[in-house]
Automatic annotation (TrEMBL):
<feature type="domain" description="Glycosyl hydrolases family 2 sugar binding">
    <location>
        <begin position="13"/>
        <end position="179"/>
    </location>
</feature>
<protein>
    <recommendedName>
        <fullName>Beta-glucuronidase</fullName>
        <ecNumber>3.2.1.31</ecNumber>
    </recommendedName>
</protein>
<keyword id="KW-0326">Glycosidase</keyword>
<dbReference type="GO" id="GO:0004566">
    <property type="term" value="F:beta-glucuronidase activity"/>
</dbReference>
<feature type="domain" description="Glycoside hydrolase family 2 catalytic">
    <location>
        <begin position="278"/>
        <end position="596"/>
    </location>
</feature>
<comment type="similarity">
    <text>Belongs to the glycosyl hydrolase 2 family.</text>
</comment>
<dbReference type="InterPro" id="IPR006103">
    <property type="entry name" value="Glyco_hydro_2_cat"/>
</dbReference>
<dbReference type="InterPro" id="IPR036156">
    <property type="entry name" value="Beta-gal/glucu_dom_sf"/>
</dbReference>
<dbReference type="InterPro" id="IPR023230">
    <property type="entry name" value="Glyco_hydro_2_CS"/>
</dbReference>
<dbReference type="InterPro" id="IPR017853">
    <property type="entry name" value="GH"/>
</dbReference>
<dbReference type="Pfam" id="PF02837">
    <property type="entry name" value="Glyco_hydro_2_N"/>
</dbReference>
<dbReference type="InterPro" id="IPR006104">
    <property type="entry name" value="Glyco_hydro_2_N"/>
</dbReference>
<dbReference type="Pfam" id="PF00703">
    <property type="entry name" value="Glyco_hydro_2"/>
</dbReference>
<dbReference type="InterPro" id="IPR006101">
    <property type="entry name" value="Glyco_hydro_2"/>
</dbReference>
<dbReference type="InterPro" id="IPR006102">
    <property type="entry name" value="Ig-like_GH2"/>
</dbReference>
<dbReference type="InterPro" id="IPR013783">
    <property type="entry name" value="Ig-like_fold"/>
</dbReference>
<dbReference type="InterPro" id="IPR023232">
    <property type="entry name" value="Glyco_hydro_2_AS"/>
</dbReference>
Amino acid sequence: MLYPIDTPTRTTKDLSGIWRFKVDDEKGDFTPDQVLTDSLSLAVPASFNDQVSIDAIRNHVGYFWYQTDFQLPHLIAAERKVLRFGSATHEAWVYLNGQEIGHHKGGFTPFEMDITDIAVAGNNRLTVRLSNMLDHTTLPVGNYSETTDAHGRLVRQVDENFDFYNYAGIHRPVILYTTHKHYIDDIAINPQLNEDFSKAQINIAVKTHQLDQHQVLIELFDEEDQLVASGDLNEALVIENPQLWQPMKAYLYTAKVSLKDGSDILDSYSEPFGIRSVEVKEGKFLINGKPFYFKGFGKHEDTHIHGRGLDNAANVLDIQLMKRIGANSIRTSHYPYSEEMMRLCDREGIVVIDETTGVGIMESFNFDVSILEDGNFNDATFTSLDTTAAHEQVIRELITRDKNHACVVMWSIANEAATYSPGALEYFTPLFELARELDPQKRPLTLIHIMMSNPQTDLVSSLVDVICLNRYYGWYVSHGDLDTAEAQTRGELLAWQEKYPEKPIMYTEYGADTVAGLHSMEAAPFTEEFQEDYYAMNHRVFDEFDNFVGEQLWNFADFATKIGINRVQGNKKGIFTRDRQPKMTVRSISERWNHIPNFDYKA
Ligand code: BDP
């Protein structure tokens, strides 16, 4: 799916701004053609939750109405018109001028509707009904229940099966864009480098709605806007001596695709792309043929006031901070991030492990790791949950959306599923096959292992290209005892290495809750001293293993989550606070990472 941009043949209209908003009382007295009265004024895009000061609205589980009016100039009357949501969390029914025009389930991927026949010149009323409910068929997974209050009213509840606040709303831009009635629908770019990187063949597939006489022309431009190759769909497009997209040193070409009728250009679209190779070989993760070492973070889309809504300024600052402390990569834990962030990572050379919403796939998510001790790993996750359809859908939508991004070097199919549970291999095998089939660039695939999934219990690692581990020795296991934690860390890495000597291993999470400003001489848990010691212990062990290819700590910044006895106003495992101030450990991590090269660290 193409990102909405202005081109000589396309116009975009951003519907961001202040919309009308109201909780749906489910009495059925509002119909989407009406003006939403008695409403609150709310910013779009953003989560609704932290914009309101009324607890009953902030915490409401159920349905919500959003509404705005927009004007369409007569000028574009003859154009094809499309309404596109970057995301609406988690399920949306969309109405234009009172008529239902679309429905989408899944809160982190874009969807669009052709409104050519429904939009009118002049005023148009756009109404959206939104649900923030999650259950055992959705991703992320939620535990849904219903009760009645003292007045006999239905009360819905979602107990998140994951550790982040269930923000909802219209989280990403709503854009109206126009095209000619014959148009470019999609572009897939797959650059192939030859062995010595002196040449790149740029394979481009274009999906169009066109007539037989129309032709597609492709022109490739470098960063100085110089034409470097051109041709139609049947011609091989070759770039000699290509500039490679490198981690932290991005180089982006642009593919300009034109749909032509003789000399008339009916539609044109410009897609940035990078040329780089990615390969997993002999225990190494190779980018452009060289062993890459991941340094970075699991993150969240999570900022004050905006909640999970797009915050371009925060994204820019986060990347600036990452660069300053020597990080080179992120994982989009635990859902696809905004297209704006993905484009920024392309531009800034940030390496991305791109994750689906496959989180919470476990009968009940908790932090009780005692099941490790009693050896009873069985649960009924894969018979009691029913997430296959949602999982297939998000894999399709994620890969369709992000397939051209140079920054994406690996897909993460899920985070911390019950991969030790009967049925896990049967559940994941077709999902991995689907992802491999959909990706034109055939990137490596992984899923992220929870602690209970270790070399003895895990059932699915035969599927992955890289073994990715979330580990909390010294925190959830052997809490506060870093000597024992060190031995456990070493012991488990050895066991993985023995079992899969050809597969690279990396940590995709490790961290300790740390309350900024809390200190102690004896480095007690929750203090800044403990966080620093915890990381030093882990890093000592990482450096002993040749096929250990990366460290992405948990988390970049403190973030909002559901309340619980383990949570002090949010998850405090950030090495930055939620407002992006450093905790003490940032200095030592920066010292370490600025000395670890992006390539050949373990050579
Ligand atoms: C892991 C999850 C992550 C949590 C983290 C934690 O992948 O979402 O926030 O642990 O407990 O279970 O901090």
